[in-house]
Structures are given as C-alpha cells and as structure tokens.
Design goal:
This protein is 39% helix and 17% strand. The protein is α/β, with parallel strands linked by helices.
Length: 407
C-alpha cells in the first residue's frame, strides 16, 4: 500500500512507497503515459533494488473525465491531488467554448502552483539549429499565476471594457482608443518574491552560479520594473549571505559564468527581455537559472527549448508550496492518438524532475541517463528520426524499451 507524501517546514517528507496520482491525458496522452510509467518503474527497480517504488493512482481530467464523470476537471481529482500533494499529467485537450478556459491554467490557479519550472538542456545527438547547443543549460522559473495571463480580460466593446476605458479617462485622464479590448497585468511584490525565492533556493541547492531576473522594466516600470526591484530585494533580505548582486561582483566579471569575485555566492543579475533572447543565443553559458514574469517566461521557455532541439524533449513542472504537478509541455497531438508513435520524452523527463524534487536524485539521474543513451543509440521516435542522420524510427513503446535498456 502506498503512503502519502507530506510537506513539513518547507520540506518534502517522502515514504519509500509513495502514492502518486496521475492524469493519463487526452489524445496521445495514454500512449506516452504507458511508456513513461514503464520507464519510471524500471528506473526505480534498478536503483533501489525494489526498496522504493511508486503506487500510481489514476485520477480523471479532460475528455476521459467528461465522458465518465460529466466534468472536465472533477472536484474529486483536485481533492486527490491536494491529498497526495504531488502528481503527474499527460497533455489535456483545451475544451472549446464555455466553462474552463484551460484545464492546465485552472489546475495551476486552484492549487496555487505559482512556479512553472522548465529545465532546458541538450542531449547529445539531437538535431539542433545551433552550432554549440550543449552550451545552453538553464532552469527557467516562470511565475505562473499573475501578469497578463491572470485571465482578467474583456472583449472589445463589451460593457466591462467600455466601463474600464471610461473610468481610466475620467479618473486619471488615461486615453485608450474607444472599442479596445482590455487585459489587466497584475504583478505583485508577494507573487514576485515567492517565485524569485524559489529560483534562488534552487540555485543554492544545486550549486549553480547565478539567477537572472528577466523583465521589461525599462518600458513597464511598475509591473516589470517592480519584478526586478522586488527580486533583488528578496535576494538581499532573505538570502543575503548566499547571494551577491552582479553590480558588486567587480568590474566586468559579472558577465562570466562563475565569476571569481562572487566567492561561491549566487550572483543575482537582471536582463531586459529582448536582450535576454539575444544572450541565450549568443552567450548561453553565462546563464544557469532564470526567473521571469509569466509572459516573458512562457516565451523564453519555448525559445530556449527550440535551441536544444525542440519541444518534444522539454519537461515541465508546476510547483507551489507543498504541491506540485509535473507535465509534458507539448499538447495532445490528436492526429497520432492511439498509434504508438509520438515521443514520450517530455513526460518522462518531467517525471525525472519530479523525482529530483522529492530528493530521489538517483532515480532522476537513471531516467535521464536512459533517455541520453536511447538517443545516442539512434533508435528514436519519428520526430527525431526524420531529423537525425542514420536513425531508425521506432514506436513509442519501443523507444521506452530503448530507454530502459540504458537506465
Ligand atoms: P500539439 O498537440 O503539441 O501538437 C503539435 C505538433 O507538435 C504535432 O502535430 C507534432 O508535430 C508535434 N508533437 C507534439 N507532441 C509530440 C510528441 N510527443 N512527439 C512528437 N511530436 C509531437 O499542439 P496543438 O495541436 O496545438 O494542440 C492540440 C491540443 O493540445 C489542443 O487541445 C491544445 O489546447 C492542447 N494543449 C495542451 C497542452 C497541455 O496539456 N499542457 C499544451 C499545449 C496544447 P508533427 O505534426 O510535425 O508530427
């Protein structure tokens, strides 16, 4: 029988046989979940000799939930995830029209999973548009709740949009063209600081050299400028002994990956969003952890993933305080549903992130080793096979088999 994972004094308490709820996902979700579960169980058995295992508990969401329970996101699913704290999910169809805007956004907001964590690294042999893709190795912490994605948005000419335009004109003399659609961009000190604190904790824990705050504070002075200011403040006030702002590292040294002047402390830097996109292409080795507001983080995550060979391999986790849901970052790829064809790596690497978060680094390393080995052996799913010279295309399940061989 599995036991509950607990969270006490800011730390996970993980039994040897935790129960972890999973959402299989829609479309190709069942194909990749089947493959992922085999890899997780094989890695666990291999590294712990049977001492540690996971009891997987299915919970419903998406189309399957709608068919079986009449709801896209049943209350029982949320309750079970709340109870067991850590879950993993395949991709879900976004219901078109009415009800929930996006199941993923709903899950994040309901469980207050305020950090979207996206590690981006290169696997040897994956085709990439870059000459030296291995130089990029970053973990992006994207704020998950606030910003223009908070869902406060009104259609052009709606009574709400018209009322806001009128109010701003009358009260503050702010001119907005009549008939505009309106979206609200809230960024708070609280939301920023808990996200930046998580990024800094990760850098300290993983002994990474820097955290870079990415913002557009030169234009949006109070929202994105606030993100920068509050980010530096939380570094100074909560992690003063472990961090150092780039401005204090010594002339010219802040740009280097591990500046001598930092004396082992995490260097806190900030970059304007557009410059950051250029930096990731031109000098990726200077960045190890990135903390960004929602929109910047969303764009950066996918752009960075493209540099190392695309979204098919990009894992993700949505993490709060004492709750976490890990997920494949791609969608349901419905045209391949049930064809045992697509690449399961995104979900499998999300599982590796989950085990790492729970302190089972040996399991995470084994899974990552398995993926790296399978790719190197050039027996890969169609998406990689069509780009890799001399590769053999294999099915989702055969690819999982190749991963297990290399675990
Ligand atoms: P998508 O499902 O990600 O698929 C777009 C294309 O990406 C596929 O046709 C395929 O490319 C490639 N692809 C995606 N997953 C792959 C995998 N595992 N292995 C190999 N190739 C893969 O995006 P979409 O078609 O825009 O969205 C479909 C549904 O998914 C929508 O309902 C959307 O709302 C939802 N969605 C869910 C999530 C989530 O749950 N996190 C995220 C995004 C979208 P080729 O055609 O070139 O083979």
């Amino acid at each position: 029988m599995g036991e509950r994972i607990d969270f006490r004094e800011g730390r996970w308490v993980v039994p040897d046989c935790p129960t972890i709820p999973f959402i299989e996902g829609d479309g190709t979700g069942p194909d990749i979940w089947r493959a992922a579960r085999r890899v997780f169980d094989a890695a666990l058995a291999k590294v712990s000799g049977g001492k540690r295992r996971v009891e997987w508990l299915e919970v419903l969401a998406g189309e399957k939930a709608f068919r079986q329970a009449g709801s896209w996101l049943p209350e029982a699913t949320l309750e079970t995830i709340r109870q067991y704290r850590v879950a993993i999910k395949g991709p879900l169809t976004t219901p078109v029209g009415g009800g929930i805007r996006s199941l993923n956004v709903a899950l994040r907001q309901i469980l207050d999973l305020y950090a979207c964590v996206r590690p981006v690294r290169y696997f040897d042999g994956v085709p990439s548009p870059m000459r030296e893709p291995q130089k990029l190795n970053v973990v992006i912490f994207r704020e998950n709740i606030e910003d223009v994605y908070s869902g406060i948005e009104y259609q052009a000419r709606s009574s709400e949009a018209n009322a806001i335009i009128e109010f701003l004109a009358e009260r503050f003399g702010a001119k907005i063209r009549p008939g505009s659609a309106i979206g609200i961009k809230p960024i708070s000190e609280f939301g920023t600081q808990r996200l930046v604190a998580k990024a800094i904790q990760h850098a300290i824990h993983a002994r990474l050299p820097s955290v870079t705050l990415v913002h557009k504070g030169n234009i949006m002075k109070f929202t994105e400028g606030g993100f920068r200011e509050w980010g530096y403040a939380v570094a100074r006030e909560r992690f003063g002994g472990d961090t150092l702002p780039e401005s204090e590292v010594g002339a010219g040294a802040g740009g280097t990956a591990r500046p001598a002047g930092a004396n082992g402390r995490v260097v806190i830097k900030d970059r304007i969003t557009d410059a950051m996109f250029a930096q990731l292409v031109l000098r990726p080795e200077e960045y190890s952890v990135i903390a960004a507001p929602n929109l910047n983080g969303d764009l950066l995550s996918d752009a960075a993933a493209a540099q190392v060979g695309g979204l098919g391999l990009a894992p993700g986790g949505n993490v709060g305080d004492g709750y976490a849901v890990y997920e494949a970052t791609h969608g349901t790829a419905p045209k391949y549903a049930g064809r045992d064809k697509v690449n399961p790596s995104s979900l499998i690497l999300s599982g590796a992130m989950m085990f790492e978060e729970l302190g089972w680094n040996d399991v995470a390393d084994a899974i990552t080793r398995g993926i790296a080995g399978a790719i190197k052996s050039r027996r890969v799913t169609y998406d990689l096979a069509r780009l890799m010279p001399e590769a053999t295309e294999v099915s989702t399940s055969a690819f999982a088999g190749a991963i297990i061989e290399h675990v």
